[in-house]
Amino acid sequence: MMNAKRLLYSECLRIYEVDESFIESLHEVGLIHVVVSEQERFIEYDDLSDLEQFIRWYYEMNINVEGIDALRNMIERVKSLQSEVDKLRSELQFYKSIF
Predict the structure, then answer these.
(1) Residue 62 is inside which H or E element, if any?
(2) Rounded to an integer, what is the distance from CA 6 to the centroid of its chain?
């Protein structure tokens, strides 16, 4: 059922109780990766926490795949900006300490 760091696609559908069309839509827009190996399809373990988040957004909050993609991009941008702010704050502290 599982291969190294991958979950068999059909197991993923069963475990998370989601429609295959939802997973395919996420894959089509590049939000998760479906790997084909030895004529089987798998989802990487690294994608599972994101997949769980996307499932909550889709099924519990009724956010469509396009909305999920937009939210994901905004969250990544916020994380990037926060990292930049932290770096600048650290540099500022350094310069304050030498003056």
Answers:
(1) none
(2) 15
**Kind and range of the H or E run holding 24:** helix 20-28
How are strands ordered across the β-sheet holding 2-3?
Answer: 2-3, 6-8, 40-44, 34-37
| Chain segment 19-50, per-residue pLDDT in tens | 999 999 999 999 999 999 889 999 999 999 99
Distance CA 36, CA 18 (A): 20
- In the chain, the amino acid numbered 94 is F
Q: Which residue has the tokens 């996420």?
A: 26
Q: Which of 30, 9, 5, 31 lies closest to 20, judged by CA?
A: 9
Spatial distance between the Cα atoms of 65 and 71, rounded to a whole number of angstroms = 10
pTM greater than 0.90: no
